[in-house]
Predict the 3D structure of the following.
Amino acid sequence: MNIKNLTMTFGLQEIFDDVSLQIKEKEKVGIIGVNGAGKSTFFKIIMGKLEPDSGRVILKPGTRIGFLPQVISDEIKSMDISVFDYLLDGRPIKKLEEELNNAYMKASTLTSEKQIDNIMKQISKLQAKLEYYEVYNAENILLKIIDGMNIDGDLINMKLGDLSGGQKSKIAFARLLYSNPEILLLDEPTNHLDADSKDYIINYLKKYNGMVLVISHDIEFLSAVTTQTLYIDKTLHKMELYPGNYEKYMKIRNERLKTTERIAEKQQIEEEKLKKIIAKYIRGNEKKANIAKDRQKKLAKLEANKVTLETKKKTANFKIKINQPSGIVPLKCENLKFGYNKEQILFDNLTFALTRGEKFLIVGENGVGKSTLLKLIMNYLEPLEGKIDINQKTEIGYYAQEHELLDKDKTILENFSNYELSTKNLRSFLGNFLFTGDDVYKKVSYLSPGERSRVALARLALTGANLLILDEPTNHLDPETQEMIAATLKDYEGTMLVVSHNTHFVDNLGVERMLFLPSGEIRYYDKDIVIYYQELHNQSKYKNK
């Protein structure tokens, strides 16, 4: 992959400025940088979904590219297909075999040598593609991937539309590996992986016979998989490729930072010294004036070569205030039963109630109905049986895992049009979420998932809600922002119902009780259980305890 003079802007917002670098075949590259630096934009340029202002990304003609996005629902075209058919379609073997049969049938009817020669070339290309996809061993390869990623046999015949967000992510990842592209583009690939699946993926990618570019906040994953690290600098709009994995990158960066700081300190001392001499001698006699002029030249040279220290990374900073206290019991669910069809009941006779001010955690494996339960409470779905009682004083603020509440066709600013704030006050407020200057005029569809998360949190902070319903609120966010959100929500005076597998986040939140799905059992908070689900939430061990 050869990147030549790549320049990209969104309106007045500069993303890349004349970037040139080369990535060798079969390298495993970790891509890092703050949210909004341009990581996801870089992927879109590689895939041809965005056209740069100038420059280009040069690939060998016909290079096969595979992409795993953070938000899977944006990429899956049909939710009606079965999981197994969706996986099997990862390699276009059926389509290629049909084309090959048609080509042979056509060849049998031709008489012209030129026509026969052309059709034989076409046949040769089709056969080469089938060989690339290992046509006779493809199904065995797929079954090994299914086994390695701990994909439950019960999922195979289900429709994609009936899966949870986490299950969709895992299935999409398995399909991507099976599709065997020459370049893998992975955007936060470990968000929905259990420990065993993650180990399998790490080993798979290490041996992968192609290029891997991965965006991730998972330092352990990056350090285990990558051979190079690509840093995207949001301030300078540049990219720099470092040898080695994330750990080696950090060592190089820290040493470089120390060296830069020492140089900057020396330059500062020298600058002050030159300015004092200039100020002292500039109005003196001819000899002193000449000394001043000489020092002015040295000062100009110093300023021209002055090193620039990196600005410290900012994190979002906000508070969520409630408009009014809720009732003593803001939410009560009684005898809830729900399933997307009669054969797949997610939970039955589910009963629980929240008390004012408590923080209540929902835990369970992927696919047991955690997000579904939140959607039932929000009245996006109807229970088959039972009722949901929301106190008349309860005001709900909802954070959707896949940012469904954001209008992707509108700008950040336009997504706040229903809040009674002046543009000046709104821009000031959005600054707390790191959206400054022309950022607010970006369309949400152009934002990275991390930026979309911050927009969703900003909307939540303006609701004044006394009951927050949060579905994986730390997904897509860097560790610093995750810690800040945990601290903010810990001080929140309202009630909170949260789904999260982020152990560190949950442990700092001040959770009192946990609801286990699908059983409906309620226990007091236990960190070890949350760790268990973080590592194994895609397996079924807990069900059998």
